[in-house]
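Lecture notes, part 5. Sequence design as translation. It can be helpful to think of inverse folding as translation between two languages: the language of shapes and the language of residues. The source text, in structure tokens, appears below.
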């Protein structure tokens, strides 16, 4: 064991004596094989460049504006060396021997100790200077986006505090390396930089007729939850009272024509009305939904929610507490919440080819663990004008996890109003509606006339004007039949006190 340690220490001293300057002084061998004769014994050269014309697994070109090189001991994870390779802004990766400078060629070579297991990483675009915009500068630089890199297992890449651009998205390659040939050459020319961020395009659902969408949403949600039960009870109660009054009238001889139908006719007619009250339920739903549509449509809460996203310049995303995956381990598989980062989306609303705004923006960030639907939970979208820290309008009220995998492209379609939720059960005073039920419930009246000719005519002649029996129905008629309906005390001016507008998120993957 001691012999091994001494040999290792000696090799490390030899490695330390072999600086980058020594490598740069080596004369290039244009046959493609680096010169290694001047290297210390027990070391070898690794060359990360790609031969001219050689194939690479990188696929498409990736923009690289900075490149960091890390070497860790595989056992223990201690950092051996880290250097930043000089890269011009928006350099296309991979670098090949015909598109790089001599300095870059030398920087993409390294001298390592034989027989040691290394973990090698290339990470692109983690120079914090690449994010000196939106409030940052050389005098007020963006904070570092890498922390804890002295140990592989502790090393983290952080999301920036500003939006990504196309030329500064994080990319990474990791590989293992070991060579036992002293003064040998390892051509590690398969460096495949891959993005380690995930992209989500968020767009707004559009409607051919926004009023019809609102009407349907009210009918499907708010009416069902806040109105239907009370309204149907009101209708049922009204028919009960009318039936009771009419039967009482028929039981006495004062209304002689109606009395003739006391046992056969009046009971059946009352039953017919009650059995067909679904007709009234449906009719009233249409009336009330139309009224609610106009009330809500004119409210500030609705107008702001349905504003065009083109009215804003900047988008900010809110996430549920601790759900934002803003830290990624160097192992590029463990994303986690590290600290509060006020992470914006892609800054400006996305643009059409002609420069016009689209109702769309892009979120670039880290993915959480696979299938972890508790990560990256979007809770609100806030829209701003350039230069203002006061949001113009906000979409909130429902959450979704935008947690597709690393280097995946997802799409989210936001429906600004998918549900209208009641938050106040206060009722207004009953409102009276009058309907022509002889037309609306025509089948009931036609059946009655066939089976009991003259009954409805007798009711029209003798019931409506009877002070004693008609009671609340006095001076009304089948053509003007009264219903007292109780509704929520919702008004246009106080809409925000009675309803919440709930969005929905339809998530798909490219």
């Amino acid at each position: 064991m001691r012999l091994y340690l001494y040999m290792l220490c000696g090799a490390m001293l030899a490695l330390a004596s072999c600086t980058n300057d020594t490598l740069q002084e080596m004369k290039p061998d244009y046959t493609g094989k680096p010169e290694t004769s001047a290297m210390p014994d027990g070391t070898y050269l690794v060359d990360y460049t790609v031969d001219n014309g050689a194939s690479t697994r990188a696929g498409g070109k990736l923009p690289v504006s900075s490149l960091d090189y890390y070497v860790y001991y595989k056992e223990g994870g201690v950092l051996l060396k880290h250097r930043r390779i000089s890269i011009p802004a928006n350099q296309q990766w991979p670098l090949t021997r015909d598109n790089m400078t001599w300095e870059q060629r030398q920087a993409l070579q390294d001298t390592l100790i034989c027989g040691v297991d290394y973990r090698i990483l290339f990470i692109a675009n983690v120079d914090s200077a690449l994010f000196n915009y939106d409030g940052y500068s050389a005098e007020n630089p963006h904070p570092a986006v890498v922390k804890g890199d002295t140990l592989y297992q502790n090393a983290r890449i952080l999301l920036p505090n500003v939006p990504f651009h196309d030329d500064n998205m994080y990319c990474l390659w990791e590989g293992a390396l070991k060579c036992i040939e002293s003064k040998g050459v390892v051509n590690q020319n398969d460096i495949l930089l891959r993005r380690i961020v995930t992209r989500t395009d968020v767009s707004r659902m559009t409607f051919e007729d926004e009023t019809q969408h609102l009407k349907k949403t009210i009918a499907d949600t708010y009416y069902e939850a806040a109105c239907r039960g009370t309204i149907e009870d009101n209708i049922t109660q009204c028919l009960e009272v009318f039936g009771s009054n009419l039967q009482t009238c028929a039981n006495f001889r004062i209304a002689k024509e109606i009395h003739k139908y006391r046992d056969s006719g009046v009971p059946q007619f009352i039953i017919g009305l009650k059995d067909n009250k679904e007709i009234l339920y449906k009719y009233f739903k249409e009336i009330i939904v139309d009224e609610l549509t106009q009330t809500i449509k004119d409210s500030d809460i609705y107008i702001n929610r349905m504003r065009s996203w083109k009215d804003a310049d900047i988008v900010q995303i809110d996430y549920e507490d601790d759900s934002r995956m803003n830290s990624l381990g160097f192992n590029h598989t463990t994303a986690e919440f590290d600290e509060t980062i006020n992470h914006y989306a892609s800054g400006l609303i996305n643009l059409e080819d002609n420069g016009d705004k689209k109702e769309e923006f892009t979120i670039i960030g880290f993915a959480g663990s696979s299938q972890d639907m508790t990560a990256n939970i979007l809770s609100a979208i806030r829209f701003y004008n350039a230069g203002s820290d006061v949001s113009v309008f906000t979409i909130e009220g429902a959450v979704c996890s935008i947690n597709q995998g690393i280097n995946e492209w997802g799409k989210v379609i936001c429906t600004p109003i998918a549900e209208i939720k009641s938050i106040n059960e206060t009722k207004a005073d009953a409102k009276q509606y009058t309907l022509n039920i002889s037309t609306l419930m025509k089948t009931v009246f036609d059946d009655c006339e066939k089976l009991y000719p003259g009954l409805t005519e007798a009711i029209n002649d003798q019931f409506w004007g009877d002070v004693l029996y008609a009671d609340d129905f006095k001076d009304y008629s089948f053509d003007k039949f009264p219903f007292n309906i109780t509704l929520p005390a919702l008004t246009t001016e106080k809409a925000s006190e009675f309803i919440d507008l709930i969005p929905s998120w339809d998530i798909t993957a490219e």
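The translated text above is only one of many valid answers, since several sequences can fold into similar shapes. Residues 1-31, 53-59, 344-348 have pLDDT under 50 and may be disordered.
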